[in-house]
From TrEMBL:
Xref: PANTHER family: GH10609P-RELATED (PTHR10009:SF7), PROTEIN YELLOW-RELATED (PTHR10009)
Source superkingdom: Eukaryota
Pfam families (UniProt xref): MRJP
Name this protein carries in UniProt: Major royal jelly protein 3
GO cellular component entries: extracellular region
InterPro entries recorded: 6-blade_b-propeller_TolB-like, MRJP/yellow-related
Similarity remark: Belongs to the major royal jelly protein family.
């Protein structure tokens, strides 16, 4: 594991000192309640991250790139694409609130869930920027009846972009399929660019029956949530409800038909069971990566076979640097797995301790951790009959 960046607190590249002072005085920036959530890396090496409006709305820019300017808190963050996307008089023309991003074919997909202050929320939208010139190339507006369930509940959080096999990157905008997880409404948004249409898919497996404890204002309360992590393996969409210990999958071809709930239930397959609830998912070939907050670790397994907690291969464990992993990406172009983590003691309303290191971006050599998964799930497995000659090719690049 290599530490790429670390921060005590998050600060920005401001236009001038007055710009920062105005943001603080207007309540648009509170350094104690800005949290790093997700990360991704462009082909040119730029590191993108998200700073969502998680506990309050004092976040001046929700999508950022990490600059090479180092201050006492850590590297300064540059708003992406620039400050003009965060200071329009019409709030809904801005980038309002982004938890996760996805980079595909040198385009960044920015899921803006639209949640601002209580009386200033906007409809969710997906913004697509070409990273070659940082220009907006497409906006996908998500209708309210797709973004929420029948009761009006919904919180869109994770986009995952899938390009069908044999489709080249120059056909991305015409052929892409975008899946978006709804963590609160327990559903999935499916956007098919070839038809320029979106629909909502729900199943009983997308909701949560279990819970985790979270601390709010020094009180521990039970919390349940639906889908957070999304990834694809061999034509299947994999997902996990945030407060469940199970990973499920559905055929992408069947999801494109927008099945009703009963049909979706019948088409859902259990992929495997985790030792504890996980946040983000990431994958490459048959290798599936998840997190373990009890062990403060990142783990993986061969997900082309049904797996159980004993099949998890821990390839990184660190009590200080991997406490709460909120974002994770496999970067084929760079042969890396990259993740963001936050210290567990952070609570609302007090926020972070500005004197301690609170946020990390770490990376791993992708080939090396794939080899470790193969060695521990196949070669060392007692079930040698489950291993085939194709396993090495399945798990490793």
């Amino acid at each position: 594991m290599k530490i790429v960046y670390k921060w005590k607190y998050l600060d920005y590249v401001w236009d001038n000192p007055e710009h920062k002072e105005d943001a603080i005085n207007s309540g648009n920036y509170n350094v104690s309640t800005c949290f790093l959530n997700d990360v991704d890396k462009a082909d040119d090496g730029r590191i993108f991250a998200t700073v969502p409006k998680m506990f309050n709305f004092a976040v001046p820019a929700s999508v950022v790139t990490v600059s090479d300017i180092i201050e006492p808190g850590g590297p300064l963050l540059h708003p992406y694409p620039d400050w003009s996307w965060y200071n329009n008089s019409n709030m809904c023309d801005n980038i309002v609130n982004v938890y996760t991003i996805h980079i595909k074919c040198n385009h960044i997909f920015v899921l803006d869930n639209g949640y601002g202050s209580d009386n200033e929320s906007c409809d969710p939208k997906l913004l697509i920027f070409n990273l070659e010139n940082n220009t907006l190339v497409k906006i996908i507006n998500i209708p309210p009846d797709v973004a929420t369930n029948e009761t009006g509940s919904g919180f869109l959080i994770t986009p995952f972009v899938y390009l069908p096999e044999k489709c080249e990157c120059n056909r991305l905008l015409d052929k892409m399929i975008v899946f978006i997880s709804d963590m609160i409404g327990s559903g999935l948004v499916v956007y098919d660019s070839s038809k320029n249409s979106s629909c909502r898919v729900e199943s009983d497996f997308m909701g949560a029956t279990d819970y985790i404890n979270i601390t709010v204002a020094n009180q521990t309360v039970p919390f349940t949530a639906g889908i957070y992590g999304l990834t694809t393996i061999r034509g299947d969409l994999f997902y996990n409800p945030l407060t469940e210990k199970k990973v499920y999958k559905m055929k992408i071809k069947k999801l494109l038909k927008c099945p009703d709930k009963e049909t979706a239930n019948n088409q859902t397959k259990l992929v495997g069971e985790l030792p504890i609830q996980t946040g983000p998912l990431a994958s490459t070939k048959c290798s599936l990566f998840s997190t373990n907050s009890l062990q403060n670790s990142i783990q993986g397994t061969n997900a082309c076979k049904k797996f159980y907690p004993k099949d998890m291969v821990v390839f990184a464990q660190n009590d200080k640097k991997l406490q709460v992993v909120t974002g994770m990406k496999t970067l084929q172009h760079h042969n890396e797995l990259m993740a963001t983590s936050t210290m567990m003691y952070i609570t609302y309303p007090n926020g972070i301790n500005l004197n301690k290191t609170n946020f990390f971006v770490v990376k791993f050599n992708l080939t090396e951790i794939q080899k470790k998964i193969y060695f521990n799930t196949c070669i060392k497995s007692e079930e040698h009959s489950a291993c085939t000659k194709s396993d090495l090719h399945d798990v490793i690049l």
